[in-house]
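Q: I'm writing up a methods section and want to include an example of the input and output format. Could you take the sequence below and give the corresponding predicted structure tokens, formatted cleanly so I can copy it straight into the document?
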Amino acid sequence: MTTLERTVGAEVTRIEGHDKVTGTALYAYEYPVPDALYGVAVQSTIARGRVRSVDAGAALALPGVVAVLDSGSGSVPRLHPTDDPELSVLQSAEVAYRGQIVAAVVADTYETACQAAAALRVTYEEEAYEVGLHDGDPHIFVPDTVNAGYPGRTETGDVDTALATAPVTIDATYTTPPEHTSAMEPHATIAVWDGDTLTLYNGDQGPWMTANTLAALFGLPEGAVRIVADHVGGGFGSKAVPRPPTVLAALAARAVGRPVKVAVTRQQMFTMVSYRTPTVQRVRLGAERDGRLTAISHNALQQSSRLTPYCEQTVAATRIMYAAPHRRTIHRLAQLDVPTPSWMRAPGEAPGMFALESAMDELAYALDMDPIELRVVNEPSADPESGNAFSSRNLVACLREGAARFGWAGRDPRPGRRREGRWMVGTGVAAADYPATTWPASATARAEPDGSFTVRIAAVDIGTGARTALTQVAADELGVALDRVTLEIGRSVYGSAPFAGGSMGTSSWGWAVSKGCRALAKRLDEVAGQVPPGGLEAHADTTEDVRARKNLARHAFGAQFAEVRVDADTGEVRVDRMLGMFAAGRIINARTARSQLRGGMCMGLSTALYENLELDPNFGDFANHDLASYHVAAHADVRDVEAHWIEEEDDQLSPIGAKGVGELGIVGAAAAIANAVHHATGVRVRDLPITLERVRTGLKR
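A: Here is the clean output for your methods example:
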């Protein structure tokens, strides 16, 4: 085989780009499934209680209505027990939060289904409810483990004594509000039953894993559920596991014996498909006069529903960021009568690092020390918690190189010193971290008699460019041009593979693709490149390879820089520029990686300044449940965002050496902006978002 110039690392244009801009790329709701009906969910209007009755008379009288489903109707298929109570759709009359699915209508048109859903009359037995997150709630507890298997609490040394005797201390509380993922494509599913085989055209971040979950839920054998997710319009974690609308589509199709399409409205998404939990975080730091940390204490309170004790790993990053002999980190959880939160881009790390990196900035000011130098002097030689060596750790390099590119040198550290007319100008910095996780995956590589190659893996492209990056990996391993490789993804039948989440997609899938293509290349060498008429195929599975890796601390790191201007009269904040410098292993596609990092930084800007789900204490759900009232950053808010990376070689990751960049870009971004606002004004805003009211109040003091 001819060896061509390698494409991994190059700026390759998205392979599916033409299909997307011309509208030929099919998303979940667009597949041409014949004879399909339309399902519309009916949500509870109470925060806690029980459905007493569902009067379906007016709905069923409408022409075109096929069925009304509710827990008491007897027409809803029974599901098997599950570890995720959210998926037990219409299995009980109990109501756990306002917005939970309590009924559904199936009709021959979407408009008729909506009309019938509005005609349903649901009565309830309402119970007292609690929806406010308060630190004094007696039911708050410390979970044994939190999301991703992290311990709920860790402690080393004598933190209280170290804080009491430290020459310099910081003790501050930071809050972050609930946030919504706001993916461009709302959740949508088409469910088709063929006997006991279920096909779901689904907006899905993990087709293979979703198929297994749904098979268990419906009591079906492995392989009986097939997921098709060729194109997905964003997810940010909300589509990583099945959500109630997907289960509803499958239930409805089973009940009526025809395919059913379910599309969640933008308003329904705010309570039906998860959100980022709010947090209340107390950070205490103790340091010597030279800046060396003696104690770190990070305590995070968050919420979940009474259905599921979901708890983010909010303080997990604090455990590995900085060296200190005395450390305590605690997660605390309040289960309330609220919708269930779940994953949103960089769950835990994004809000947790806002608090830690804001506190580090406050400590730098207390010490009269440059914020970068404070971080450098506290750089650990190994993972402070486990003692494991890092596979690679280039945070200091990111800080140094980022500072040089940003123009940090010569910065006047004193707050409120730089003015441009009515604008107060300041700069800030924060560190970023995200675990470099790899899960086992399988892939199949096939050589065709015509000289082309087909690679299949149950990966998914949620807009990240995964399809293109994996094609690059395959082409390089096979030693052929990109146009000779067809990568097929988005189907659960292609074998075991993790979801697109946790910044592990490319590293996990890429390893399997690399191994499969190497195996195929070896087989081709054995037959002198002569492909038989039936083709030649090789299969690879990385389960044992992943298990055999050394026990190391594997993380990606970065440094975020921001320059802001603040109106001295109104408190309005504008972000003039952001620069991120990252160390994320081998970059597979420079174009799509830069897009992901910049996208994460923009999302962090949005977190810092705008995003805030407003809980309505009278009803228990979110008052601003659309994109008119839930504000996200727009083009005018994002002026100059640069993402760069250092060349990082890490041979302890996988053969492709990638760490993942999907979530790293958002971590630290909000803290960098908050720190820049303080530098511009002297006002320390510890509660996100940084609204003009909060800044203006500080300016008036």
